[in-house]
């Protein structure tokens, strides 16, 4: 019996690779260091009020007009979507001492995006449901990938219980952020200096960011003709959007303008107090007491970020396949959204990289 294809990483890209291989009758196994699937996809609900819905602390939406791969997959899986709320005025906050500016965007100024009912995790779960039981092994952190002169590939992994495991592979698909590959996995023979540099030069999408979601009984800002969109130079949140489910409760989510280092110095409790103060300043007293605050700082997630990711990104990264890479007759293949030259950093990029990785394997 031949060795399976080993996929390292159970984010959207890795899970989709496994689904595509399974549909072709090819045996595979997904190794995931976390205790859950999804990677940077993370949909959570309020601990005290789970009935209010699930909210995305990772990627939130996609654009059907520009992203055909995810649109097709969502339709194929029968998942429900709804249009992201953007109706109403946006707010500009130039400083805490200046009056808020209220603006109405011209019709058609923004491209319509859609969200998944139940959060993006519903996409992960639906793809994972196409896999045979036992395909994904959680709590399995790959530390070494070796290839001998005969082309036989062996992986070494640390397990959650402290034990170690050795796994033989027909080939390996690395569905991880390139910087995680470079910093956490040892290769024998070693990767070239040029390839290591290429991996390290690809910032991990979202790795330096944090996201907060304030949940309310209803989206009260809409009653005042506001879209929930804000651009702020006062902070701590720099960009705010409506995060309400398609019915019922209301929610606002924001990305931070303050650095990862500053967030860590302030601490979670202080950061969240500053967030509520800002939301109250922007949307009034009804924003002062959210039912729940969900918070995820990706910069301290060790399966997502390395030290270099705490440095803010000034320009959109140059994503695509690692440079100067020879896969040794397709024994090692790179996947993940950062390896997608088009739509890198997006869900669409993750899916495109999965299709490309499988196509490379099949050549």
TrEMBL record:
**Domain (Amine oxidase): residue spans on this chain:** 112-361
Question: Pfam families this protein is in?
Answer: Amino_oxidase, NAD_binding_8
Q: Which organism is it from?
A: Salipaludibacillus neizhouensis
Q: Which InterPro entries match?
A: Amino_oxidase, FAD/NAD-bd_sf, Flavin_MAO
The record's GO molecular-function terms, alphabetically, read: oxidoreductase activity
Give the similarity note: Belongs to the flavin monoamine oxidase family.
Write down what this protein is called. Amine oxidase
């Amino acid at each position: 019996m031949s060795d399976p294809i080993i996929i390292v990483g159970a984010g959207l890209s890795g899970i989709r690779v496994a689904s595509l291989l399974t549909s072709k009758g090819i045996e595979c196994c997904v190794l995931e260091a976390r205790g859950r699937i999804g990677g940077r996809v993370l949909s959570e609900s309020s601990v005290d009020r789970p009935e209010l819905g699930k909210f995305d602390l990772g990627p939130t939406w996609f654009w059907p007009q520009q992203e055909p791969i995810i649109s097709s997959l969502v339709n194929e899986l029968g998942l429900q979507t709804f249009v992201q709320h953007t109706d109403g005025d946006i707010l500009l906050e130039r400083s805490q001492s200046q009056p808020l500016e209220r603006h109405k965007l011209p019709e058609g100024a923004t491209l319509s995006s859609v969200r998944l009912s139940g959060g993006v995790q519903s996409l992960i779960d639906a793809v994972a449901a196409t896999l045979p039981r036992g395909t994904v092994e959680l709590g399995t952190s790959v530390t070494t990938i070796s290839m001998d002169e005969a082309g036989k590939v062996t992986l070494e992994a640390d397990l959650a219980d402290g034990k170690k495991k050795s796994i033989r592979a027909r080939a390996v698909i690395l569905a991880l952020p390139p910087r995680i590959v470079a910093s956490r996995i040892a290769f024998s023979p070693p990767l070239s200096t040029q390839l290591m540099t290429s991996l390290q030069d690809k910032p991990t999408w979202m790795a330096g960011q944090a996201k907060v979601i304030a949940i309310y009984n209803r989206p009260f800002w809409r009653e005042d003709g506001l879209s929930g969109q804000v651009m702020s130079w006062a902070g701590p949140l720099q960009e705010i959007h409506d995060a309400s489910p398609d019915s019922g409760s209301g929610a606002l989510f924001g990305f931070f303008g303050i650095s990862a280092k500053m967030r860590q110095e302030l601490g979670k409790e202080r950061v969240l107090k500053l967030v509520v103060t800002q939301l109250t300043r922007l949307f009034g007293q009804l924003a002062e007491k959210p039912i729940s605050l969900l918070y995820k700082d990706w910069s301290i997630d060790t399966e997502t970020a390395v030290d270099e990711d705490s440095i803010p990104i000034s320009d959109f990264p140059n994503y695509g396949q690692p440079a100067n890479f020879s896969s040794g007759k397709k024994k090692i293949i790179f996947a993940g959204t950062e390896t997608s030259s088009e739509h890198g950093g997006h869900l669409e990029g993750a899916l495109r990289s999965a299709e490309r990785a499988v196509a490379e394997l099949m050549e």
